[in-house]
Structure formats: C-alpha cells, structure tokens
UniProtKB/TrEMBL annotation, chain A:
Region described as Disordered: spans on this chain: 464-486
GO biological process per UniProt: aerobic electron transport chain
Membrane topology type: Multi-pass membrane protein
Protein name listed in UniProt: Cytochrome D ubiquinol oxidase subunit I
One CC-aspect GO term: cytochrome complex
Taxonomic classification: Bacteria, Bacillati, Bacillota, Bacilli, Lactobacillales
Transmembrane region(s): 20-46, 58-76, 96-120, 132-150, 191-212, 224-242, 339-364, 376-398, 428-448
InterPro entries: Cyt-d_ubiquinol_oxidase_su_1
Localization in the cell: Cell membrane
TrEMBL record, chain B:
Protein name: Cytochrome D ubiquinol oxidase subunit II
Pfam family, one: Cyt_bd_oxida_II
Membrane spanning residue stretches: 6-25, 83-103, 115-137, 157-178, 199-217, 229-248, 255-280, 300-325
Family of the protein in this entry: Belongs to the cytochrome ubiquinol oxidase subunit 2 family.
Predominant place of localization: membrane
Coiled coil, from the record: none
Topology relative to the membrane: Multi-pass membrane protein
Compartments (UniProt record): Cell membrane
Keyword hit for Transferase: no
Keywords in alphabetical order: Cell membrane, Electron transport, Heme, Iron, Membrane, Metal-binding, Transmembrane, Transmembrane helix, Transport
InterPro entries reported for this sequence: Cyt-d_oxidase_su2
GO CC annotations on file: cytochrome complex; plasma membrane
GO biological process, one term: aerobic electron transport chain
Length: 486, 335
C-alpha cells in the first residue's frame, strides 16, 4: 500500500498518512459538532427550555476537547509541506500557498476568536448573541474546509495554471478557476456531510450507551433526536454527493474509479458489480468475485447499459500519454485492494447511517417508550459511534492513494516531491514520536469524553477551570462580580 | 524586486511581529504557570488571563506560515525543510502546550493536573527558546546549495549565538508574560509579577548586550546596514528601559506595550538585516533573494487583495475579543 521499507520517500509518505488520518479524526467531528451545538443553542434561544442550554454546554464540552486536539495536529499539517515535501512546495507554491494562507486568515481567526468568546461569556451576553458566537465558529470551521479542499482539489485536478518554462514549476493563471474547480465543489459537500455524520453518530452512540444505563433518559433522548435528524440529512446528503463524485471520477480519474470497482479488465455491457472480489495485484488480475449484474452501470451512468474501462487499459493509455515526460518505468496501477474495500465500506456505511437514523427517529418518537425497550438497537447505535472515523479514513484513502503515482495529477510524482534534505534517521525519529504522541492524545481524548459522559449533564460548567470557592460554587472568572475596578 | 514582493516581505514581517507580540506573552504566561504560580488557585487565575485568547494568538503563527508559503514558496521550502528537527521540536512543544489548558482543567487527580501544568510550562519554554534559536541561527547564514537545500550540521543550529538568542527570546517572552499578568490581575499575583520583573529586567539588559556582541561577530548586519541595525538596537534598548521604568512605577500598560514592542523590534532587526535576502547562505552566492523567492506577480496580486480585504475585519473582531475580557482578575485569597 504505502511504499514499505525505510526510505525517505516511504517514511515521508507514512508520516503524511499518519498525521493526516489522525488530524482528520478530529476535523470532521469538530465541524459537525460545532453545527450541532449551534443548533442546540439556537433551540434554547427559540424555545427558552433550559434543557437545550444544558445540551449545548454538555456536547460543547466534548467539542472543546476535539477542537483542541484538532488545532494542535493541524499545525503539523501546515508545516509538513515545507518540512518533508520541500520540492512539492517549490513546485506548487504559486498555487497551493494561497488557499492555505486564506484558510488561516478567513477561517482560523474566526474560529479561534469566537470559540474563546463562546467559552467564557455564557452569562455575559444575550442568549441570541452568544448563540451567534458558536455559529461563527461553525462557519469558520466549515470555511476552513472550503480552502483546504480547494488546495487538495488542485492536486486531484489541476486547473487555472501554466507551467513556467524556465523553472518547470506551476504558475497560477486564474484564481477563479482554482476556486471554481469542479473537483472542489463535488468534494466539499461530501466532506461536510461526512462531518455531519461523524458528529451526529458519535453523539447518537454516546446517547445510546447512556440510555442503556437508563441515565438522564429525557436529556439523552432529546439529544438523540437532534443528532439523528442531522444524521439523517447528512447521510442522505453524503450518499448523494458521493454519487456525483463517483460519476465525475469515471472521466477525470479513471484509474481511481477502476480500482474502487476492482476492475482490471474493461467491464462488459452487462455491468457486473462485485460485492466481493479477491485480487492478484502482482499479475493485475481479479481471481474471484461475486457479481451482481447492472449495478455497475447504475452506479456509473444511472442506466443499465455501458462499459467501464479497467486498470489494464487505463495503464496503457497513461503510458501513451506520459511516457515522453516521465519515462517508461512508471507504475500507474493504484492500490486496488485498499480502494476496492474502502469504497465498499463507505457505500455500505452510508446506507447504514441513513437506515439507523430513520429507525432511531421512529423508536424515539416523543410519546413512545419504544427506544428504551429496543436494547439491541441501542447496542448497535452505541457500537456505531466508531464507524464514522473508519469511513472518513476510507474516503481519504481512496482520494489520496487513488492519485498514485502523482502528488499533483499528471504534473508531479510523489517521488519527485520529497525534501532532498530529509534523512531516514530523522524521519524515523519523528514518526515514532508522532505515533506515541497521537496514541497519548487519542487516549486522553477518549478518557475525557467518557468521563464527561459518565459525569452526566448536571456537572457541566463551561468556564472550565477549577476555580471553585469554598462553598463549591463556581465563579465565572469573567463575570462582573469577579472584578474589582481600580 | 517589485513593489508587491517588497510589500509581502513586509507583511510576513508584520505577521511574525503580531505572533511574537501576542504569543510572546502567551508563552510567558505558560512559563509562569509552574514557575510563578504557587498553588492550584493561582495557576487557575494565571491560565484564565489567556484562556480566551491563546488559540487566536497562535493563529498568527499559522497565518505567517501560510502567507510565507503563498508569497515566498522558495523561502518557505528552504527554511522549513532546512530546520526540520528544530521545527519538529517546536511542533511537539506547541502540541503539549496547546492541549494542556483544556486537558488540565478536566483532570481529576493532583498528579495529572500537575502533569499538564508541566506540559504547559515546559512546552512554552521550549517553543520560545526554539523560535529564538531558529531565527538567530538563520541570520548567521546556513550551509545551502544552489537550489536552496540546507545541509546543516549540529552547530549550524546550536552555537553560542543561537543559544544566547534562544535564551534572550525566552527571557523576553517571560517578562512580557509577567507584564501581561500585571495588567490582567489584581492583588498578590500582580505584586509578585512586578517584583519578579524588577529583578528580571537587569538580567535581560545583560542578555541584550551579549546578544549585540554576538550579533556583531556572527552576522553581516553591521557591515551591510550599520545605520539601520544600530538604530533598531538603540530602539530595542530604549524600549527595554521604558518597560523597566514601567515596571518600577507600576505603569502596567507602559510596561506591557514596551515589552511587546521590544519583541517586535527583534523581528524588525531580523527582517532589516535579511533584506534584500530571505535566506542567508554561508556561500553568499547561494543566498535566496526576495526577487527570486516569491510567487508570480499574479498570485501576489490576488493575495494582496485578499489580505487587505480580510485582515481589517479580522483585526476588528480580534481586538474586540480582547476588549470583552479587558477587566482584571482577582488574585485568589491566600489559603
């Protein structure tokens, strides 16, 4: 899958994969959670029921943990391009830096400033104004997705550029083309809907575990409802967006699509879709598969007839296109097994999320006690809280590994992008430290979230710090009574 | 060099100035947690002074990094790949520091709260020190090939000048943090921060003199730009004296602004000395120049429009968020 072996290239790729995957556990979770908490607080503003405020604060607390880890692992990403991929940075700087800088300027400032305001001013501002703060955090974090995906989309589908003849590097010719990249506007809804799924099904899962213990039943049932409504919208949206993306891929990145469907040979007009396949990746062969007719054509073209090119054909085409510039020794096959199974995991999970949301909303109707009796359902829901993280990772495996051997599609190979200054020793060292650090952070994240859950919604205080006085009452450190004027 | 290239060289300087002014006191407060806070209640208050702000302050670094990538990719690529391990250690320090505030607040046992307090303190020390070391060793000149790849040895990064630079920046951040603490608190914490800075300022002045001597020996700043370099150094010393005076007279605002500006004057010193280069190579033929390091005129043009339309809005709400929390916090009563 990844270039195994202790080479600079292999270790740099491993580091990118590890840091991005870990970072992306928290990003969609935080983006989605910001929206859900904003919805909860807005319901408090409208309905004036204290439960909704408690909900916003309770899930907001878990949001803050996730946000903190997301922030610190995000800086790694920005630095990494220069540190490990300096040739990439030189080649792509003219285009790639701009969205990154705009992301910081337009999105990160918004997020970070208003999250500070939101955390510490619960009692100081009018409820609607305070709710606006968390909406601005949600907008900021969604905006950051726009810009980072604009950068990523160029790597997938370069547009609005020219190659500088003397330096051989990319030069931007049209910023609007970079921003209007169709790849971006197909990728973005899918990622944002994925974020919605992640946050809502983690909340739903947490609610399910608490409901199994009959803890704060009314609070968790209400939370479950909010989560599942958003989860339903997000899962349908995500499947729809994914469908658009898939059909775009057939023409734009046929190799990626062929690998997702496990096709080495061109498909026949029958449109066999493999539920299961086993591959011999060395000989580029499908050794066994369980097929359902027509499904491939329905997925690819929304009709029953048609054919899809297999990897063997595409490999020949790519050689014909690129051999002049990149030589005959290139390998254009992508990691088929990973893409094939990642796609199936994504597709099946998408359906499962929608189904669970519908059934959950039915069981959890206001006057019904059904949800409390369907313990099997709560167990499944509880276990499913881990699933979105796997599915998000699977999605990025397809996107990034399916671009192999390019780092910028058709323009620059991954092998040509690494820093010439990197050494195996330093990369090995940083990989090990990052791994241990991430394991630690992940563990603390889980322990803290679990502790917050078991402590329950009554113990939540938003000002965070342990500034209790002797009576056990918590003082708002920025409340008027805490200040003396001089 | 075009005017757009010059403008972006200035803007990168402005962003790093913002970072050192803001994250400077953030780092100082972080160091003060264990060094200065005597009990949990005191440490709570110390952290609360930056609670709503530290994250936004750190975005200045992220923006500076992103803007450097966008406007001077060759600079970004050389610097970041060349300072691989230094930046890695900075990242580790920032990670520990960054999660520590949120994690500490939710720890149940004394041991674990202690752990995250140390994480914040050591993380802040290391980050400030390493940034100081990075920038001082950068202006000494680094072994670099014609393509801008830095192949440094241990002494490229760690030498007398960079160590003194690291310690000086650390000390400046600590002092700046204690000035911020005086500005944001009342009672014992404020008094003690004042007492500390009364002692720390003479130490800093010794450090600054040492820094200037080594700057003279290790860089070409005095050969290439004697007048501007001396002027900035005089401003630096004046600002230090003003801040010291502010501490002695308990003019908290004066002290805080002056200590912040003295951090900025270090950035100005570096950028002034670099100009018209962005990276100094030991073989001066390989130094990277502003005119060769930048993105295309088109990209710079786009970025200029974005920066001048978005940055003013950012500054408005950023400053407003400080205004919301402008009041002083009471020091906890002695147990």
């Amino acid at each position: 899958m990844l270039n195994a072996g202790l080479t600079v290239l292999g270790l740099s790729r491993f580091q990118f994969a590890m840091t991005t995957v870990f970072h992306f556990f928290f990003v969609p979770f935080s983006i989605g959670l910001a929206v859900i908490v904003a919805v909860m607080e807005t319901m408090y503003v409208i309905k004036k029921e204290a439960t909704y405020k408690k909900m916003a604060q309770f899930w907001g607390k878990i949001f803050l943990y996730s946000f903190a880890v997301g922030v610190v692992t995000g800086i790694i990403q920005e630095f990494q391009f220069g540190m490990n991929w300096s040739e990439y940075s030189r080649f792509m700087g003219d285009i790639f830096g701009a969205p990154l800088a705009i992301e910081a300027l337009a999105a990160f400032f918004l997020e970070s400033t208003f999250i500070g305001l939101w955390m510490f001013t619960w009692e100081r501002f009018k409820p609607w104004l305070h709710a606006l703060f968390i909406w601005l955090v949600a907008i900021g974090s969604s905006l950051s997705a726009v810009w980072i995906l604009a950068a990523n989309s160029f790597m997938q589908n370069p547009v609005g550029f020219a190659i500088n003849k003397t330096t051989g590097r990319v030069v931007m010719t049209s910023f609007s083309a970079v921003v209007k990249n169709p790849q971006l506007w197909l990728e973005l809804p899918h990622v944002l809907m994925g974020a919605g799924i992640t946050a809502s099904f983690v909340i739903a899962g947490c609610c399910a575990w608490r409901l199994l213990k009959k803890d704060h039943v009314s609070f968790y049932r209400k939370s479950l409802n909010v989560a599942l409504v958003i989860g339903l919208i997000a899962s349908i949206g995500s499947v729809a967006a994914g469908d658009f993306q898939t059909r775009y891929l057939i023409n734009q990145q046929p190799m990626k699509f062929a690998a997702m469907e496990g096709l080495y040979k061109d498909s026949t007009n029958k449109g066999d879709w493999a539920v299961y396949s086993s591959f011999n990746t060395k000989q580029h062969k499908t050794t066994a598969s369980l097929d359902v007719p027509y499904v491939l054509n329905i997925l690819s073209y929304h009709r029953l007839s048609g054919t899809v090119k297999g990897q063997n054909t595409i490999n020949q085409e790519m050689h014909a296109t690129y051999d002049k510039k990149f030589g005959k020794d290139m390998n254009y096959y992508v990691p088929t097994k990973t893409l094939f199974w990642s796609f199936r995991l994504m597709a099946v999970s998408g359906g499962l999320f929608a189904l669970m949301a519908i059934v959950g909303l039915f069981f959890n109707r206001r006057k019904s006690q059904l949800i409390m009796r369907q313990r099997w359902f709560l167990y499944i829901m509880g276990l499913m809280l881990w699933l979105p993280f796997l599915v998000n990772t699977a999605g990025w495996f397809i996107t990034e590994l399916g671009r192999y051997p390019w780092v910028v599609y058709g323009l620059l190979t991954i092998a040509d992008a690494v820093s010439p200054t990197s050494t195996v020793g330093s990369l090995l060292f940083t990989n090990i430290v990052y791994f241990l650090l991430f394991a630690g952070l992940g563990l603390v994240m889980i322990v803290l979230s679990h502790r917050t859950l078991t402590a329950g919604p009554d113990g939540v205080e938003m000002n965070g710090y342990s500034s209790e006085d002797t009576s056990g009452k918590v003082e708002d450190p920025y409340g008027t009574e805490a200040f003396n004027h001089d | 060099m075009t005017s757009a290239q010059f403008l972006w060289f200035l803007l990168i300087g402005v962003l790093f100035s913002g970072f050192f002014f803001l994250e400077g006191f953030d780092f100082g407060i972080g160091m003060a947690i264990k060094l200065f806070g005597r009990n949990t209640a005191e440490r709570d208050t110390i952290i609360q002074t930056i609670g709503p702000h530290w994250d936004g302050n750190e975005v200045w670094l992220i923006t500076a990094g992103g803007a450097m990538f966008a406007s001077f990719p060759m600079w970004y690529a050389s610097l970041f790949s060349g300072y691989y391990l230094v930046l890695f250690l900075i990242l580790v320090a920032l990670i520990f520091r960054g999660v520590s505030f949120e994690f500490r607040a939710n720890m149940k046992t004394e041991t674990w709260r202690n752990f995250w307090e140390w994480a914040a303190t050591i993380g802040s020390f290391c980050a400030a020190f390493l940034f100081g070391m990075l920038f001082t060793s950068m202006i000494e000149g680094v072994p670099m090939d014609a393509k801008g790849n830095i192949f440094g040895s241990f002494t490229t990064y760690v030498n007398w000048f960079s160590l003194v630079g690291g310690v000086a920046v650390t000390l400046m951040c600590l002092i700046h943090g204690l000035n911020f603490l005086q500005l944001k608190t009342l009672g014992t914490l404020r008094d003690r921060a004042q007492a500390w800075n009364k002692v720390l300022y003479p130490v800093l002045i010794v450090g600054e003199v040492l820094f200037v001597i080594l700057l003279f020996i290790s860089t070409d700043f005095f050969d290439k730009k004697p007048i501007s370099t001396w002027s900035i150094l005089i401003v630096l010393v004046l600002l230090t004296l003003i801040a010291w005076w502010g501490v002695l007279k308990a003019h908290n605002w004066t002290a805080f602004i002056a200590s912040g500006l003295s951090l900025i004057s270090i950035v100005v010193l570096i950028f002034n000395g670099l100009f018209p280069r962005v990276m100094i190579a030991t073989n001066s033929a390989h130094s990277i120049l502003i005119k060769d390091a930048s993105s295309s005129p088109y990209t710079l043009h786009i970025m200029t429009i974005v920066a001048f339309s978005v940055l003013p809005i950012v500054l408005i709400y950023f400053i407003w968020s400080y205004w919301v929390f402008y009041k002083r916090l009471k020091s906890p009563k002695a147990a």
